[in-house]
Amino acid sequence: MDGDVAEHYEAHMRALSAKDRMARSVAMLQWSREVISRQLLAELGAMSPARLKLEVAKRIYRADAAICQLIDQELMNVSG
User: pLDDT tens digits, residue range 31-61?
Assistant: First the structure.
């Protein structure tokens, strides 16, 4: 059954235009950011939109120490 679902999905994705595939990717990224935002707000409490944006980026890029260091520097300049 799982193979059938994967095959159907892959066939559907191949049938999409490049523009439609990109739109799906953008929508999935936005959805992921929203999920992470909700998780962070539940864990850390209320914060400013600017801080939340950086905290989301830090969660997304947590495997890259150099990027996290840059985000931490920005976080020092953001209130709330």
Answer: 999 999 999 999 999 999 999 999 999 999 9
End-to-end CA distance of the chain: 48
Please check the confidence at residue 3 and state whether its pLDDT lies above 90: no
Contacting residues for 50 by C-beta, under 8 A, at least 6 apart: 78, 79, 80
d(CA 28, CA 8): 19
Task: Annotate 26-63 with DSSP letters as a single string.
Answer: HHHHHHHHHHHHHHHHHHH----HHHHHHHHHHHHTTT
Tokens 């990027």 belong to 67
